[in-house]
Design brief:
Elements (H helix, E strand, L loop, with lengths): L13 H18 L1 E5 H18 L4 H11 L2 H14 L8 E8 L6 E7 L4 H38 L3 H50 L1
Antiparallel strand pairs: 1-3, 2-3
Helix pairs in contact: 1-2, 1-4, 3-4
């Protein structure tokens, strides 16, 4: 009876299932992504991620343990030499499953399983988003600096030297007007004095004639 056997049997006996998962794991290590059914992709995810975790500690013991599962020395070498360096900072979740729809013929649900750090499309997209955010911040800062520079340039134009120059120009004009008015008043006073003198002379002449 199958009591407590919760793993996916995949319609195969134990030896066949183990060799199939080992072969799929070697293909994933070599090509970094493979297409398969959703059930096999989920079983492969549970099979290969503990082996990738083992590859972080490069020792003879761990290499022999991984080789007992994969049974392919080239896959073991690539796993410990290249992939372990690429996923060294990741604490888990080394693979991603992307569903692709149903297969023609038997209508089985298909999926692509891949190593997360080797997907250049998703990584480039995240980098581009980060760059655009930084550029937006830098553009706002540059706009603020440009506005400050414009304000600083416009401030000296609004200062008062022009008014002082106008006042200085208007002061001589007012002085000239005052001088002209003073001359006019002097002329009028002198004219009045001369007229008075003439009138006095005429009166004196008239008095002499009468006498």
């Amino acid at each position: 009876m199958r009591h407590g056997k919760k793993f996916a049997h995949l319609g195969r006996k134990t030896p066949h299932r183990k060799y199939m998962l080992a072969n799929m794991a070697c293909s994933l290590i070599e090509h970094k992504s493979i297409n398969t059914t959703v059930a096999k992709a989920k079983a492969l995810k549970r099979y290969i991620e503990p082996l990738i975790t083992k590859s972080k500690n490069d020792s003879t013991h761990n290499r022999r343990i991984v080789f007992s599962y994969l049974k392919n020395k080239y896959a073991v070498t690539e796993l410990f030499r290249d992939i372990s360096v690429k996923i060294g900072d990741r604490p888990g979740g080394y693979t991603r499953i992307i569903k692709l729809g149903n297969r023609l013929g038997d209508n089985a649900s298909m999926a692509m399983i891949e190593l997360v750090d080797y997907n250049t499309i998703y990584n480039n997209g995240s980098d581009a988003k980060k760059k655009t955010r930084r550029r937006k911040k830098s553009t706002t800062k540059s706009n603020i600096s440009v506005e400050e520079a414009v304000v600083e340039e416009s401030a000296p134009v609004e200062e008062a030297p022009v008014e002082e120059a106008v006042v200085e120009e208007s002061a001589p004009v007012e002085e000239a007007v005052v001088e002209e008015s003073a001359l006019a008043t002097e002329n009028t006073t002198s004219g009045d004095v001369s007229e008075n003198k003439e009138n006095e002379k005429k009166t004196e002449d008239s008095d002499k004639k009468e006498s």
